Amino acid sequence: MTSADVQHELRRVAQDAFGWDSLRPGQAEAMAAVVEGRDVLTVMPTGSGKSAIYQVPALLRAGATVVVSPLIALQDDQVAGIDRAADAPEAVTVNSAQGRRENAEAWTAVGRDGAEFLFLSPEQLAREDVLDRLRGVAPSLFVVDEAHCVSSWGHDFRPDYLGLAAAAEHVGRPPVLALTATASAPVQREIVERLGLRDPLVLARGFDRPNLRLVVRRYTEDATKRRAVVEDVAALPGPGLLYVATRADTERYAQALREAGRRAAAYHAGRRDKDREEVHRAFFDGDLDVVVATTAFGMGIDKADVRFVVHADAPDSLDSYYQEIGRAGRDGEPALATLHYRPEDLGLRRFFASTRVDGEALRAVLRALLKADGPVTRKALAEASGISARRVSGLVNLLVEAGAARREGRGVVAVGTDRPAAVVKRAEEATESRERIARSRIEMLRGYAETTECRRAFLLGYFGEEQVGPCGNCDVCLARGEAPDGAEPDGRAAAAPGELADPAEAEAEAAEPAEVPVLGEGPAVPTQPVRSASPASADSPPVAPAGGGPGPGAPGRGGPDDGGRGGAADDGGRGGAADGSDRAGAPDDGGPSDGDGQDDPFPLQAPVRHREWGDGVVMRHEGDRITVFFDTEGYKTLARDVIAEHDLLERR
């Protein structure tokens, strides 16, 4: 078929099978590449119709479509969405939440009855029997949803995602389509490499969500912050989400909000499955005003009318923050994203970013691989090493990164002849690199919270996009009376729910004492838009503090709640230690450029090399500074005059 024929067929199928009269920007281009058999990575904002990118072209390719989705709740939602289209083909799931008979019927539907879509978790694809059955099905398309989970630089890393490239090969290597709503350029490159995408079309559409008002409120005392969070959320029209760092705080804040008259419930991975499902149902049915959650209430939250997302604690990165605030305002109406920020709280995030290699466990898994005659499954490695299958996944990832193991379709094999001590040392070096990267991402979050410039410009710059002029819908722009082109003459943007359009009124209200249940004690201070300086820049590492445990008033170690993720994964959630980072060359990600790039020696997305920090990519411009993501060091902000004076960077 010609390109015109492909586009015509795509629109016909979209209309006939799903009832869609038109396709959104970016959808048709990605769909056409899939029909033509090309690998594709699509990065599109939440609510932009990513699922359609596999649903429509799947009907133009002969054979079943495998969709890898990380959560059972997500799988169920997508199947339900397909079922709502009267003329769409059948979709089925195979997962551990279903009985043996139901799973058998799903396999029969795909193998004999012609069901088009088969939804599986990455944990299912780690099983040899599942891979063998899929090979018999001979799928025509292999879809990886929430593809950022493959990246150890991303915010939802799942070790079993690292086996998907080998799984795709084992089932016949059909075209691979990777989908995600959030992936900065470094994460995009890692997705391309780790999924083994071949000459992919990388389609990254704009990250901006102009209907979201971005606000940061700053505090010096933890108790004051806690009172203000309750006051803020209690006054906002719902429904909405309040994110906190620990399970204990979900219960504390939920109780305080109920005492303030709001219908609020706590959600975290430590609650029973039945209780979590009930919170989900109540929130979606409109029976709750606020869900107070850890990041366990995450992927799969597809409720269009969420009016606010408030963070009581700083998340671990801007990647996480963008993903979480993206759950607000999916209907396109004004919504609010507020970060309650205390600089000392970042000490907790730095503490959680600290990791170490369990050398004995790594040696045990390596010994088990060396004794085997061929590929070893995760289950067999767990039995031979005496280590849980969940931890084995992370240890295997480290061995692969250290060059001591390789994934194959039926399992993992040992490679190389290095002594175990040398392998452990390389794994430790990789882990230290990841820790540096994690700390640099925390410092970028600090930069967002403390910037004196347009907050939206900073956020978009982190993802490699430029905001031209003031956004008119963040606290900094509003406080200055700045507005984007086309705004009202007085410079105001439309107020988000529960927010005051007049910055003076907002500051006056923030200074009033709280009249809500108190979660802690401490002197009251006004909560106003931050006016602190951005991170310093120099030719030495500019992201100042490294190390350190929790700051004053930070909770003790308990770990952020990363289980559940809005529904149980097939092995109980995220597994073992994080993997490291093999690097791919920079793909053409369709991102913005800084003009034509001819006048600026370091335009956005330009690959560069630093004599000490190695290879990197230019991510952000801010006046006389640029921010570069370095593969082994993370984000560094450099002054242009220092770069020129010391010849620090060169284009690759």
Structure notes:
- This protein is α/β, with parallel strands linked by helices and 652 residues long.
- It contains 21 helices and 20 strands.
Number of helices: 21
Poorly predicted runs of 5 or more residues: 486-518, 520-597
- The strands making up the biggest β-sheet line up spatially as 3-4-2-5-6-1-7
Structural class, please? alpha/beta
Total count of strands: 20
Estimate what percentage of residues fall within beta strands. 5-15%
- Terminal CA distance: 38 Å
Q: Give the integer mean of the pLDDT values.
A: 80
Q: C-alpha Rg, in Å?
A: 25 Å
Helix share, percent: 25-40%
**How would you characterize the largest beta sheet?**
7 strands, parallel
Q: What does the overall shape look like?
A: globular
Write the layout of secondary structure elements.
Blueprint: H1 3-18, H2 27-35, E1 40-43, H3 52-58, E2 65-68, H4 72-83, E3 91-93, H5 100-111, E4 117-120, H6 128-137, E5 141-144, H7 164-170, E6 176-180, H8 185-194, E7 201-204, E8 212-218, H9 222-235, E9 240-243, H10 247-259, E10 264-267, H11 273-284, E11 290-293, E12 308-311, H12 318-325, E13 335-341, H13 346-353, H14 359-371, H15 378-385, H16 389-401, E14 405-408, E15 411-414, H17 420-450, H18 455-462, H19 475-480, H20 503-511, E16 607-610, E17 614-622, E18 625-630, E19 634-639, H21 640-646, E20 649-651
Parallel strand pairs: 1-6, 1-7, 2-4, 2-5, 3-4, 5-6, 8-13, 9-11, 9-12, 10-11, 12-13
Antiparallel strand pairs: 14-15, 16-17, 16-20, 17-18, 18-19
Helix pairs in contact: 1-2, 2-3, 13-17, 14-15, 14-16, 15-16, 17-18
